[in-house]
Structure formats: C-alpha cells, structure tokens
Amino acid sequence: MVACVGGLAYDEAGRLLLVQRANEPGRGLWSVPGGRVEPGEDDAAALVREMFEETGLQVTPGALVGRVVRGPYGIVDYRCTVVSGPLRAGDDALDARFVDRAAMAALPLVDGLLDALAEWDALPRS
C-alpha cells in the first residue's frame, strides 16, 4: 500500500479547494490536493509539502477527516487551514480553484470523491 495524504481546505465562503490532476492516476480529473508520503515524513509534513507543491498555499494541518483506499493508494484526508500564499496550480496540477457545490457538480471528479466527502460531511457549501 502506498501511503498518501489529502487536504480539505475551505475558503471563507465555505468553498472547497480542488485541483485538476496533471498526472496519472486520474489525469484531467478533479480531486482534493495531496499525494504520497515520502520516506521520513509524517502525514502532517507530507500534507504541508503536497498542498504547497500543488496549490502554492501554506497550510496548517488539522483534524483527520477520513480514509480511503484507491487501488494501491491508502489515502488519509485531513482538514487544513490556509495560512498564506496566492492560489496557483503547481507541479502536479493543471488547475486549482475553490468550488461551491454547484461548481463541483459540473467538474469531472476522481472516482469516489463525492461519496467520500458526503459520508464525511465535508462537501462545500452551496
């Protein structure tokens, strides 16, 4: 199992931060930012690094939201708070934006994202 983290960050309007994946798996699809935990990293360090690499944002990791398994990837998702930085698509992202529920419904999402967010009561506000 490949250890991964994902970050659920919301803006002041309750919109959720999503990225359009630049690489497989899921190239072109939208998901929460995140990625692999590197050797020697804990989840918090990996989350801070991945969020910055994919979105340009500095974050503070928060509470565990949930866990999912997608193929060989075991993904642990955490809420996080944006501390600073201009939002931009980084090295593993084609695009990055905060979305409300209507905008999210119009995007091609990675498999299982909508169900997981609904189960965790973590969907963006309408």
TrEMBL record:
Domain Nudix hydrolase intervals: 1-123
Pfam families linked to this entry: NUDIX
InterPro entries, per database record: Nudix_hydrolase, NUDIX_hydrolase-like_dom_sf, NUDIX_hydrolase_CS, NUDIX_hydrolase_dom
Listed cofactors: Mg(2+)
Record key words, sorted: Hydrolase
Family according to the record: Belongs to the Nudix hydrolase family.
PANTHER family documented for this protein: GDP-MANNOSE MANNOSYL HYDROLASE (PTHR43046), MUTT_NUDIX FAMILY PROTEIN (PTHR43046:SF14)
Protein name per its UniProtKB record: NUDIX domain-containing protein
Organism: Pseudonocardia charpentierae
